[in-house]
Amino acid sequence: MQIYKFGGASVKDASGVKNLASVLKSIGYKNTLVVVSAMGKTTNALELVVSNYFNNKTELQSSIQEVIKYHNDILFDLFDPDGYGDENHAVFKKIKSFFDGLNIFLRTNKSPDFNFVYDQVVCFGELVSTTIISEYLNSINIKNQWIDSRELIKTDAYYRRANVNWATTQNLISTKLNTSILNITQGFIGSDVNNFTTTLGREGSDYTAAIFAYCLNAQNVTIWKDVPGVLNADPRYFENAQLLHQISYREAIELAFYGASVIHPKTLQPLQRKEIPLHVKSFLNQKESGTTVGKGVALKPLIPCFIVKKNQILISLSSLDFSYIVEDNISEIFSLLHTYKMKVDVIQNSAISFSVCVENIYNNLEKLLQKLRAKFSVTCYEQVCLYTITHYNDQVIKQLEQGKTILLKQLTQETVQIVTK
């Protein structure tokens, strides 16, 4: 069994869908499961729908229509390229049914919970993309079965970052999935015990591929990207990024934790447990080797790796009476960070101070600061950048720091992290 995952950039238009088909024809699809993300920037567009639902009702239908038009354009390119009326193909009705379901949900929903609504809305991106792709593959005689991953991947009700119920998921996947045929399913989404849709966190489609691989004891997982493989830096922010030909699970997990965007942080853990190799390859150049992530392989080439996370928040605390910040204080601080769902990226403490760099995913910053100010002197820096360099040397640190205001700097033997304005 092999697992292929295609991201949104790879299927952003009709040409991308056709290229996916050519990849399958070229490399084979026997005993294969294909996991697909929402097309292009659909998740962003559906996030705007959610925002308008809560904050700008006058623009709600307009934002929904943008999503519908985008997918209809792809449908016509794939199934009615000459305008001869092939829109009678069943796929048009299926896609219309999905968007009708979206509108019905938005009209009838009673929940004020933003995170719940978010998951019920953004899931339509994956449901629509996989339906279009499945129907197109069938139309060119690549026979496949469309699978609703929400029926197989079961989670808790932690909306927008759900945790997998591994025992239930393992049982469902191993007993209900016919692995003798090509299956097409969605990344990113699952469902809770009440069958409400949950999501696994942004970029969670990679994680979905790993979940299926783990439960099916897959031979390998291949993530098809619009880059040659795992690079030592994001080329949008760093010049002269280089391809890493191989990397160990451990190092890849650390890079993902620090924010490397090519691999989702949770993806590697289930693969490592069963030693399932991960390949990251370019869907534009299928024959290139890309990057292999595996057990005990040395980083090749051994060069510094750069990661940047923008729009971070640095919170610096000190005791009001100059008393020590010790275990009780730190425990209370982390309890508050957990309560307000802050993702912690860096911590640094001294006898009378404590600093933490976090992501304000759930927009709870002001509530957190209010609680912290009751017991601590608080300084908060918003819109900061967190840089992480592994296998660093003095020269690359000096180059990175040039022209920046350094708010926090932390070095270990292998890694340096720097927070800047």
UniProtKB/TrEMBL annotation:
Pathway: Amino-acid biosynthesis; L-threonine biosynthesis; L-threonine from L-aspartate: step 1/5; Amino-acid biosynthesis; L-lysine biosynthesis via DAP pathway; (S)-tetrahydrodipicolinate from L-aspartate: step 1/4; Amino-acid biosynthesis; L-methionine biosynthesis via de novo pathway; L-homoserine from L-aspartate: step 1/3
NCBIfam families reported for this sequence: asp_kinases (TIGR00657)
Enzyme class: transferase
Record-given protein name: Aspartokinase
Pfam family, one: AA_kinase
Catalytic activity: L-aspartate + ATP = 4-phospho-L-aspartate + ADP
Residues annotated as domain Aspartate/glutamate/uridylate kinase: 2-282
EC number(s) stated in the UniProt entry for this protein: 2.7.2.4
Keywords, in A-Z order: Amino-acid biosynthesis, ATP-binding, Kinase, Nucleotide-binding, Transferase
Family in the record: Belongs to the aspartokinase family.
GO terms, molecular function: aspartate kinase activity; ATP binding
GO cellular component, one term: cytosol
Gene3D superfamilies: Acetylglutamate kinase-like, Aspartokinase, catalytic domain
Coiled coil: none
Residue stretches spanning the membrane: none
Upper classification of the organism: Bacteria, Pseudomonadati, Bacteroidota, Flavobacteriia, Flavobacteriales
Binding-site residues, ATP: 236
